[in-house]
Amino acid sequence: MKQLHRNALAKMVGTLLQEGFLRVVMPDGDIYDFGDKIGEPITVRLHDNATVGRLALNPELALGEAYTDGSLTIDGDDLHGFLALVIRNTRKAAGQRIWWQKPILKSRAALRWLAQNNFIERARGNVAHHYDLSGDLYDLFLDEDRQYSCGYFKDPGETLDQAQAHKKEHIARKLMIEPGMEVLDIGCGWGGMAITLAKDYGARVTGITLSQEQLAYAQQRVEHEGLSDRIDLQICDYREVKGTYDRIVSVGMFEHVGLRHYGEYFRIIRDRLSPNGIALIHTIGWAAPPEGTNPWIAKYIFPGGYVPTVSEAANAVEKARLWTTDIECWRLHYAYTLRHWYDRFAKNEDKVAALYDDRFVRMWRFYLVACEQTFRHGPQAVYQFQVSRSVDAVPLTRDYIYDRSDPRPTPRAITGKRPTLVAGNAATSQPVPAVELDFTQPQEQGNDRQNPTGR
Fold first, then answer.
1. Are the CB atoms for 163 and 145 separated by under 8 Å?
2. Which of 20, 132, 442, 454 has the fewest C-beta atoms lying within 10 Å of its C-beta?
């Protein structure tokens, strides 16, 4: 059996690896070389025969597990180089499977379909698995605003904090945020987007999350900023929201919806938007035919998650009878973001180990590097879907997003009620003073913004 597993692994790697030079050292010291054998190899050492067997049968799951538990090591700990090599070749060999892996993949796909039935209680558990980790962990590698999503790099040399500020400004401009607008933030995280829209753009924001840890931190930030009269944060599932909003924003949450719920999600977006409202959905997506969630990521990092293709999301938008007014693809931006996160994480590994343990450090190291290399060499990118109920909710051209010399775009009607959320079916609406704005004359840009950079 040991030799059978070894031969199976060698056949699989030999089929996959056509570019680059990989050397695999087996538990007994035998050496297998793969690829074009040009230059210096990346050397991987397997330390027990059980790992060889698991890698042969289910490599997508076993690779991360083996690195995490130390049964697979890389000379020089060159995890970036190793995963870049694997992902480049995997993309070129897309669809190639050894015959004995096909039944495993079919059964895994069926189980994954069941796992993505993210009813409300399961969704809360999935969120808690990742986002209710210690806030001290996230402070060790995120920016000062705790933006746990892709930054927007106008230049690759920008700092992480600059890129995250650019992202929030870019989203605010796409949403054409004006003072007094009612904004729903689905998946508000630690409150950074809500605070920016309220403080810098004068919006009134209702933020919802399923993470108790995030909610407590975000509420403290809101109180510290003196924005409690403009920002209402709640533990609430998007399916429990009542009322209508002028704008809806959702950053880094759509990946947790699950394919089975896309239709429901966008129907709710439509129902919650005012007649001339605009929504922006910021999500990771495949630039390739649909693929399932990597089993290691699904098991250890984001249970219940699913990364959509553009066509899967667009199909749900169409069925909800929404206008897709803009789709933007951010290609390498998440790779740059993840490298910043990894560099900060690596500098603080001793502190992470003190919070958890060395195994957790290796698991998160693998997670951050694998994601970065997927955005650099694999078929993933970040997409922003701008949708509306009305065909004329946004200007005819995209100049309003980029041209700072243009007058601010004329916004649509602003509602006169502020929805108040209560988890479950109960909800009330609390009147707020009507906002009277004169849109007949162009307004000078920046008059109502405390900081045009979005910080």
1. no
2. 442
Instruction: State the Cα–Cα distance between residues 362 and 374, nearest whole angstrom.
Output: 18
User: In 331-455, at which residue ranges do the beta strands (DSSP E only) sit?
Assistant: 380-388, 417-421, 427-431
125-431 is classed in which CATH architecture? 3-Layer(aba) Sandwich (3.40)
Q: Which residues are catalytic?
A: 371
Residue 74 contacts residue 82 (beta carbons within 8 Å) = yes
* Spatial contact of 388 and 273, defined as CB atoms under 8 Å apart: yes
Residue 146's identity, in one-letter code, is R
The single residue listed with the structure tokens 């922006």 is 280
Sheet holding 31-35, edge to edge: 31-35, 21-25, 42-46, 72-74
Read off the pLDDT of residues 167-199 as tens digits, 9 standing for 90 and up. 999 999 999 999 999 999 999 999 999 999 999
What is the phi/psi pair of residue 292, to 5°? -75, 165
Confidence of residue 227 (pLDDT cuts 50, 70, 90): very high
The sign of the dihedral angle between the CA atoms of 328, 333, 335, 340 is negative
Instruction: Burial-class residue 266 by CB neighbours within 10 Å (0-12, 13-18, 19+).
Output: buried
Q: What value, to the nearest 5°, has the Cα angle with vertex 139 and ends 138 and 144?
A: 120
What single-letter DSSP state applies at residue 309?
B
Rounded to whole angstroms, the Cα distance separating 106 from 97 reads 12
Tell me the β-bridge partners of 326: 386
- Tokens coding 423: 């988890």
What is the C-alpha separation between 452 and 34, in angstroms, rounded? 53
Both tokens of 220, joined, read: 């403290």
Q: For residue 100, what is the DSSP state?
A: G
Local confidence band at 126 (pLDDT 50, 70, 90 cut-offs)? low
> How sure is the predictor about 120, in pLDDT bands with cuts at 50, 70 and 90?
low
Residue 234 pairs in a beta bridge with: 208
Sheet strands (E) in 318-393: 323-330, 380-388
Burial 194-203 (b: 16+ CB within 10 A, else e): bbbbbbbbbb
Which structure tokens are listed for 223? 């109180």
Q: Regarding predicted confidence, which is higher, 126 or 297?
A: 297
What's the CA gap between 305 and 187, in Å, rounded?
Answer: 14
The answer to whether 27 touches 47, Cβ cutoff 8 Å, is: yes
Q: Where are the domains of the chain?
A: 2-109, 125-431
pLDDT at 146: 97
Residue 447 to residue 450: CA distance in whole angstroms: 8
The answer to whether 444 and 404 have CB atoms below 8 angstroms apart is no
